[in-house]
Each structure stands twice: as structure tokens, then as C-alpha cells.
Amino acid sequence: MLSVLKSATIGDLSRVKQVVQPTEFWSTPSGYTQHAELMNVASDLAVIVFGEKGNHARATLSDSSIPVNSPLEIQAVFEVE
Q1: Taking Cα atoms as reference points, which of 4, 1, 8 lies closest to residue 81?
Q2: Residue 53 and residue 16 in contact, taking contact as beta carbons nearer than 8 Å
């Protein structure tokens, strides 16, 4: 996600004004309940990289399968200058 964002800002992550909302879709087995803990890693990284601008709303979901057999899909909304 950061690599795509860096490309979108022409290599200048300082153009990010706010991390608005990342959403993570996890491929997990039935009965798995630790989604928030998985999302905490990404949320913590956003604050490390962007400081106060990294604070955000978030969502995390799971399903038994995700396209192309991926374990994770991330969607994110950023405010950029």
C-alpha cells in the first residue's frame, strides 16, 4: 500500500495530508476472531510513517477466500495535496 501511495505522490509522501480509512480483507478460517489485532499492525505503521496525519478510521473484514488466492486485500483512502 505504501509503495502504491508513494508512486501516486510521485515519490513524495509528504504530500499525504491525512490517512482517511484503510480497509483490510483477510482470508481466514471460519471462527477466526482476531481481525482487530491484524489490523493494529497496519494502523500502527500509518502513525509511525505519517505521525498525527496517520490517525484514521478503519475497517477489517474476513472471508473464506479472496480473489487470486491472496491472503489479504487492502483498500485505503488518503487525502493528498
Answers
A1: 8
A2: yes
- Please give the distance of CA 74 from its chain centroid, rounded to a whole number: 5
Q: What is the value of pTM for the model shown?
A: 0.85
What are the angstrom distances between the C-alpha of 59 and each of 9, 23, 24, 29, 35? 24, 5, 6, 18, 10
The answer to whether 16 and 79 have CB atoms below 8 angstroms apart is: yes
CA 13 to chain centre: 15
Give the separation between CA 7 and CA 81, rounded to whole angstroms. Answer: 14
Residue 5's nearest CA partner among 52, 49, 59, 41 is: 49
Cβ pair 13, 79 in contact under 8 A: no
Average pLDDT over residues 38-45: 93
Q: Supply the pLDDT for residue 64.
A: 86
List the grid coordinates of 76.
Answer: 485505503
